[in-house]
């Protein structure tokens, strides 16, 4: 009988587990939010992941439960554990990914390098932080904040008045997170896989290029990375994976500062956009690795198979232009390009797929990946 | 709307199209022979591929029809064309893969190098061939003959008496195929993809190692292959693909003789065991390429991504030993090994999966692939 992995969430991350699951002989079962989602092929249930009964019923027929996203509420996770379900990553690790204040607190406890930060409950506390940090800072709502939402650069405490007002009305109380505005030269991401029995596999640190607050492309490994940089990034990734007992894939988003320090920016406890290059550029893709890790199977080698890989996200253009013709044009122009699609209707700015290209020369690889992706831009 | 490819047959070749179809955004629909087959995840119908109504009903909801095997009868194929279904490869090409006498005749017409052969209808004709070829020859039933069945080495015409008797009772009449026993040094396979509009993509020729009449492993590219050998093999592959107007993947099994000639042994018009290495060792896997080709999309680059790739078939051991534990042991021992499973219950001698390993050193790559596979031997 095949091992059965249940995935809560029917998005593109669950979709991209389908191929590796088929090859590994793993039966993938997906609890999708609605019909017709990216991972519809593997969907065995449709329902609300915030409803404990729905998730418990879904979990009854799987050996391990994992996630397409980190949004399953803690009370649902607790009910799963109570019912004896193997949940990976576990509630303790997920809690850190669900709340940026918890994350900053835990990073501090683990001694991880990170921007100066504070929990602020009113404008006065925020102003004090601003005064101490050159008059500008980043304010974040601890929960939510996906893809640039819930994040605001402020230079006066009054600019967060609406969020403080919302806090005051929130029965759970709480605080906002304020962080120093880091003078970074670029953004990096470090991925680590960890299985419950402890084995870890460390991917090379990569450079992530953001445009309009969204990941636009990934260069793997990070160019101009010194031996020291790679080792420090790997150490941070392993320390967090072990310190939080993460099971499955972990992505640590990092700032590289102009004075050559690495600071922890965000965490994701699942396959991550920064690791899509591994589908075509590493011995073991992050999607296969995640399945192996949550099943507590021996991990695969994370090493790259080419000197360089570049991933370029494909953002949807106007909905009236079908993707098919664009893909054909991209394929004709770049026969090396690996096209990955998410089965989503195109909409301006929406990630609908990505392109991977690997090879010996970074400039050439990046050129070809961008050329293939350009067929999707308007 | 996604492009829809229908696959007749629910075996492992259809199964291995699932991952590439998901990534390309192609909707794969499979007509399986029965429930629970290798490609069950993509099965949208279960039925008999020899029944025209069944196949026609299945074909109604797809853009292109293709195959997991070459056994769909010509009358069913004709009914599909009549109904306006796009069938790739087409009936004319499939006819050559379905009948070894037709194949030998067409190869002769195309001027392809092949063993001496004859169509023989009785023992007298067979004896004449034996007398002309050193007293031994290979006799084959033109239809069937998969994996060593329907093939017999004889040194006296009487050894085929039962087949001649069966022929005499067959209303369709016909003949047996007799071929000279080729003094070959090894077996090779050349894969070519061709799309309806004419573009071809040529994979490097590989060495296939048979054990007990079944493919045991594949070394890619073929070691010790001279520039000339590779070019001749490629030319043969392209000439056959174009000469027969094959659409999709074509595999040409070749004998390399001790006097350094290449002779056509068999043809397969679908993804083929000799190309499983491409899943992890080529820019474009044969499964993705087959989908692109039958959809008449631009073909992907067929070049290897590593110096060497070795594929070792996994044959099922006793049914009472579950595969899961074996896979875990293989993964732990060989973290580079790419494990591919077919979702089949293990049975002695049954192909239930394969292992791919790629790298710089052939001996090392072959050692690791065999080591991983050894966990499945008894």
From TrEMBL, chains A, B:
Q: Which domain of life is it from?
A: Bacteria
* Top-level enzyme category: ligase
Q: Residue ranges of the ATP-grasp domain?
A: 104-295
Q: Which parts of the sequence bind ATP?
A: 100, 140, 179-182, 187, 265-266
Which InterPro entries does the record match to this protein? ATP-grasp, ATP-grasp_carboxylate-amine, ATP_grasp_subdomain_1, PreATP-grasp_dom_sf, PurK, PurK_C, PurT/PurK_preATP-grasp, Rudment_hybrid_motif
**Is Transmembrane among the key words of this record?**
no
- Reaction catalysed? 5-amino-1-(5-phospho-beta-D-ribosyl)imidazole + hydrogencarbonate + ATP = 5-carboxyamino-1-(5-phospho-D-ribosyl)imidazole + ADP + phosphate + 2 H(+)
The record's GO molecular-function terms, alphabetically, read:
5-(carboxyamino)imidazole ribonucleotide synthase activity
- Per the UniProt record, one Pfam family is RS_preATP-grasp-like
The EC code for this enzyme is 6.3.4.18
Q: Which UniProt keywords apply?
A: ATP-binding, Ligase, Nucleotide-binding, Purine biosynthesis
To which pathway does this protein belong?
A: Purine metabolism; IMP biosynthesis via de novo pathway; 5-amino-1-(5-phospho-D-ribosyl)imidazole-4-carboxylate from 5-amino-1-(5-phospho-D-ribosyl)imidazole (N5-CAIR route): step 1/2
Task: Cite the SUPFAM superfamilies for this sequence.
Answer: Glutathione synthetase ATP-binding domain-like (SSF56059), PreATP-grasp domain (SSF52440), Rudiment single hybrid motif (SSF51246)
What PROSITE patterns does UniProt report for this protein, alphabetically? ATP_GRASP
Subunit note: Homodimer.
Which NCBIfam families does the annotation name? PRK06019.1-5 (NF004679), PRK06019.1-6 (NF004680), purK (TIGR01161)
Family that this chain belongs to: Belongs to the PurK/PurT family.
Biological role: Catalyzes the ATP-dependent conversion of 5-aminoimidazole ribonucleotide (AIR) and HCO(3)(-) to N5-carboxyaminoimidazole ribonucleotide (N5-CAIR).
Write the protein's name: N5-carboxyaminoimidazole ribonucleotide synthase
The organism is Microbacterium gallinarum
């Amino acid at each position: 009988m095949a091992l059965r992995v249940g995935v809560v969430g029917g998005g593109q991350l669950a979709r991209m587990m389908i191929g590796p699951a088929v090859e590994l002989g793993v039966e993938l079962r997906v609890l999708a939010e609605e019909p017709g989602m990216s991972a519809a092929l593997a969907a065995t249930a449709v329902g609300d992941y915030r409803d404990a009964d729905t998730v418990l019923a879904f979990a009854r027929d799987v050996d391990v439960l994992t996630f397409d996203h980190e949004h399953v509420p803690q009370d649902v996770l607790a009910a799963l554990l109570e019912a004896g379900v193997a949940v990976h990553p576990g509630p303790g690790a997920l809690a850190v990914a669900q709340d940026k204040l918890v994350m900053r607190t835990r990073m501090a406890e683990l001694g991880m390098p990170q921007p100066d930060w504070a929990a602020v409950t009113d404008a006065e506390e925020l102003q004090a932080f601003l005064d101490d940090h050159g008059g500008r800072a980043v304010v974040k709502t601890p929960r939510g904040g996906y893809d640039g939402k819930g994040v605001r650069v402020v230079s006066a405490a009054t600019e967060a008045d609406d969020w403080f007002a919302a806090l005051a009305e929130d029965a759970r109380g709480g605080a906002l997170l304020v962080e120093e505005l880091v003078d970074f030269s670029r953004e990096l991401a470090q991925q680590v896989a960890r299985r419950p029995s402890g084995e870890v596999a460390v991917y090379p640190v990569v450079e992530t290029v953001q445009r309009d607050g969204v990941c636009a492309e990934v260069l793997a490994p990070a160019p101009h990375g010194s031996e020291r940089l790679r080792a420090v990034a790997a150490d941070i990734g392993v320390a967090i994976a072990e310190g939080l007992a993460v099971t499955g894939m972990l992505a640590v988003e990092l700032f590289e500062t102009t004075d050559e320090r690495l600071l922890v920016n965000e965490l994701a406890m699942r396959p991550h956009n920064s690791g899509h290059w591994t589908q075509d550029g590493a011995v073991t893709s992050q999607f296969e690795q995640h399945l192996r890790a949550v099943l507590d199977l021996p991990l695969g080698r994370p090493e790259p198979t080419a000197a360089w890989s570049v991933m370029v996200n494909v953002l949807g253009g106007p909905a009236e232009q079908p993707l098919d013709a664009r893909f054909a044009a991209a394929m004709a122009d770049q026969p090396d390009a690996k096209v990955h699609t998410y089965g989503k209707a195109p909409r301006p700015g929406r990630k609908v797929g990505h392109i991977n290209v690997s090879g010996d020369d970074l400039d050439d690889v990046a050129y070809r990946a961008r050329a293939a992706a350009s067929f999707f831009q308007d």
